[in-house]
């Protein structure tokens, strides 16, 4: 399949395609699935996961089943990317069995290896660099809860991690503004901020220190854990550095009165959010989690349906 499209980064799809995917996900959320039922009939999809997952794994498996396809889960102990055998061999062998590889990897380089040596579409189900499937569900959620995307402002509070990076790069494509507040050592790198700024010159991208400044006029206040999978050795230092970066009802009051709270989950209660924050009246975190399935169905249809 020499012309395979892949989704390793939110920038692998252009702004028009990003908007169309969100629209398609909205359609696929309807009871008739927007006509997509059985669109994966006869297709087999490997879910190759080096890290644990609840939302990504289950939403992909159920979504694939709803579209008539077959999913095969390969967990952290089973394949041994670059330990039991090289990524290049895994890519070549899997490409002979399945029509698509959905991979959650420790290193983004493993995804690039799957693309380079395989011959089927590869979807990033989270790497240390980006989390594009999460962001497509996030855009769907914003579109539903804020009545559209263009002109809305999302404020991200916390670690400049894979989720923050994907948001920063995806939001300008749909005309949204982005602000992030992080302690200096955990801020998003300049190169990503610059890249995002070049996607759409009429949107605003800002990196700040103070959460209260970042959430000013925000339509969405978004946070993620301070210690992501793979960063556990830094947990003590991170807990100290992120004091003052919790998203709580008081911070929500400094955003627009109509603002929503979002969290990609899992949450570390007592750290980036207090207990109960995901059930706050302005929270749409559970809807956001449920939207993973609809967004991923739209991604699968885009990459695989013939
Ligand atoms: N948000 C997210 O990717 O959740 P999981 O780690 O449970 O898949």
Question: What attributes does this structure have?
Answer:
306 residues, alpha/beta, 4-stranded parallel beta sheet
User: What's the β-strand tally?
Assistant: 9
* Mean pLDDT figure: 96
Helix and strand sequence: HEHEHEHEHEHEHEHEHHEH
Give the termini distance in whole angstroms: 12 Å
Q: What strand line-up does the widest sheet have?
A: 7-6-5-8-9
Q: Can you count the helices?
A: 11
Helix content: 25-40%
Q: Output the structural class.
A: alpha/beta
> Tell me, what's the shape?
globular
Runs with pLDDT <50, length 5+? none
What share of the residues does DSSP label as strand, in percent? 5-15%
Largest sheet: 5 strands, parallel
Q: Taking Cα atoms only, what radius of gyration do you get, to the nearest Å? A: 19 Å
Q: Which small-molecule ligands are present, each listed once?
A: phosphoric acid mono(formamide)ester
